[in-house]
Amino acid sequence: MAGTQPEKTQDSKDGVENATSPVVNLASGCVLTLMGLAGLFWLIPNHVDASAGSYDVSPAFMPNLAAWVVTLLGATLACSAALKCRAAHPVSNWPALVVPAIWGIASIAIYLGVTNIGFVYVMPLVVAAGLLLSGQRSWPTIVAIAVLFPLAIDLAAWHLFTVQLP
Amino acid sequence: MDILLHLAAGFEAALTVTNLLFIALGIALGIVIGVIPGLGSVTAMAVLIPLTFYMSPLVAIAFLVGVNKGGTSGGAVPSILLNTPGTPESAASAFDGHPMACKGQGGKAMKYSLYSSVTGDTLSDLLLIALAAPFAAIALQFGPLELASVLFFAFALLAGLASESPLKGLIAIFVGIFLATIGLDPIDSTPRMTFGEVELFDGFPLTGVAIGALALSSIFEQMTTLHRYGERRATASLWANDRAANRLTAGEFFSHWRTIIRSAMIGSGVGMLPGLGVTLAAFLSYGAARRASKDPSSFGKGNPDGIVATEAANSAVVGSNLIPTIAIGIPGNIAAALLIGAFMIHGIVPGPFMLTMHGDIIYALFASMLIANFIHLAVGRVGISIWAHIARAPRSAVLPPVIALCIAGVYLPNQSMFEVAVMLGFAVLGLLMRHTGFSIVCLVIGFLLGGMFEASLRKTLLLYKADFSSVFSSPISVIFLALGLVVLARAFRKS
User: Fold this and answer.
1) Chain A residues in contact with B88 (beta carbon < 8 A)
2) A14 touches chain B (CB under 8 A)
3) Of A64, B9, B44, B49, which residue is the least packed, with the fewest Cβ within 10 Å?
4) Which of residues 247-276 of B touch A (CB under 8 A)?
């Protein structure tokens, strides 16, 4: 295409993305295979009633089918990535996985904070931290957005929907 | 003739003050959210779905359709003014829109974008109205075997197109299907993988899954990117005070009629096929316009045909992706998948029976969509200079408050912190998938269609007593299974 090169956008991240490192693919394949096996041999047998009704196939049919497919495709992914690793000794992009881990911890903290302390007290801290992380350095902007926005949501939830946020 | 009578009744139901106000509000909100780089119509719909719980089904769906229309066209504003596409589908608008803006014709480029968007959308809506009923009539001939085969085809198409590799696409789809099986069994109501938790009896809530995986994970990702690389800001003066330079007459706009019609047809065709995205329609149409042009070298340097082709095609997808949604209950893309969720929340089951059981609402929705195009034109025209200011708002100030909005939006309908936990969990899963190259779209569509796939497969096994040769008794089934296998084989060979 002629013209300027567009910035990488949302869809390119949730859809067609740059090729992932074979090391990450190998790890993903192994984790998926293990999760599939855990589903097949522990989760489904213990937590799904496998007996079929007289007019139907077993309720465990679809979870089993999905788990088998994930296990087999996960193993295929791991094997193909392992072959690529042997052939090219690729560089791992492990630091990329640190980001989801940090957001995972942040999500747990947000959930616990909102549940135990309350939306209107925790969200200003979350929004302020988010603004700082995103590179916002204007303190009046940070304070205004972090305090007023959650407060406005809380008031709107109460006055429009008569729902008290936690 | 029947269609016209139904449509007249639809207009009667749709022309209420409440409906018109919510359509206008939906379009305005959609444009505002679409204008903010990185937040597209999908994010806008995902965040706003909880608000519709308090509306009637027609107003709710019309509002969301308005959001979708506004969000799709709003993305062109930052593309043109900042060379930063607000939505991926408007990325091609930047190729010619931004050079026009750099010449001081930002206003004219935005008018081209708005008018093309509304024209493409209207043509696609007319196609939807004409084809939905015949498609649904054909779909009524579908039994569980045919439906399972069509779903297999949709999954194959999606796995091949929406993911880095078809293998990863299939894995994401089947993880989605597996997650959809958690909860009470749809046929005999025995609990499956609920660990005795009552909140899991209904399975994972759709709003939590959709908002978490699609919207919140994107917010987390963009905040991380901003932290690493900072923000790109516009510096040039993009809007000349010269009124003549920014004027666009009807004659001048419609002189591009060939591009408008071609692009609307490309967008409608892409929208009708499940799994092909809006972005693909926009780029196919841009390429087609360039090939058809007498002066292809002018593309990328400020040729209005480039904007017209992109915007007419991406907006044409909005209407036509409802054709498979209404006819067979399979979403054309992720925005249609969210609409299916909204239909289900309001007690309307998408599929061939939708027109017979809820015909009044569906024709009122068609009428609302046509009315929405005129409202879109008015709101967009009035707001052109306002949207330009919003496009200049720094993302660093806009993204973090959306986290608070997502939490409140998911909590409000059922006052359940479980749904908030599900949303946060799926946001982290979505982020992990983005970083490991798995498609979130495949996961969400697998989750959404998993129940339907399971029901049709189980009914097929029951009806034909697990005799696999029965597949060959249905030509429709054979065709879709063969197409699915061909699509998968091609995708694997290409990857």
Assistant:
1) 9-12
2) yes
3) B9
4) none
Given the structure tokens 């069994």, which residue do they identify?
B185
By the CB < 8 Å criterion, does B168 face chain A? yes
Please give the model's pTM, rounded to 2 decimal places.
Answer: 0.77
Tell whether A31 lies on the interface with B, counting CB pairs under 8 A: no
Q: Is B404 close to A76, i.e. CB distance below 8 A?
A: no
Q: How confident is the model at residue A73 (pLDDT cuts 50, 70, 90)?
A: very high
- Under the banding of pLDDT at 50, 70 and 90, the label for residue A101 is very high
pLDDT-derived band at A1 (thresholds 50, 70, 90) equals: very low
ipTM, two decimals, is: 0.86
CA distance A1 to chain B (A): 8
Distances (CA, A) of B103 to B64, B237, B301: 36, 9, 10
> Which segments in chain B show pLDDT lower than 50?
234-236
Q: Return the residue in A62, A65, A77, A79 with the most chain B beta carbons within 10 A, the one to mutate for interface testing.
A: A62
Asked if the Cβ–Cβ distance from B171 to A2 is below 8 Å, we say: no
The three-state DSSP-derived secondary structure of chain B is CHHHHHHHHHHHHHCCHHHHHHHHHHHHHHHHHHHCCCCCHHHHHHHHHHHHHHCCHHHHHHHHHHHHHHHHHHCHHHHHHHCCCCCHHHHHHHHHHHHHHHCCEHHHHHHHHHHHHHHHHHHHHHHHHHHHHHHHHHHCCCCHHHHHHHHHHHHHHHHHHCCCCHHHHHHHHHHHHHHHCCEECCCCCCEECCCCCHHHCCCCCHHHHHHHHHHHHHHHHHHHHHHHHCCCCCCCCCECCCCHHHCCCHHHHHCCHHHHHHHHHHHHHHHHCCCCCHHHHHHHHHHHHHHHCCCHHHCCCCCHHHHHHHHHHHHHHHHHCHHHHHHHCCCCCHHHHHHHHHHHHCCCCCCCCHHHHCHHHHHHHHHHHHHHHHHHHHHHHHHHHHHHHHHCCCHHHHHHHHHHHHHHHHHHHHCCHHHHHHHHHHHHHHHHHHHHCCCHHHHHHHHHHHHHHHHHHHHHHHHCCCCHHHHHHCHHHHHHHHHHHHHHHHHHHHC
**Selected residue of A11, A132, A138 to mutate for chain B interface (largest B Cβ count, 10 A):** A11
pLDDT per position as a tens digit, B362-378: 888 889 889 999 999 99
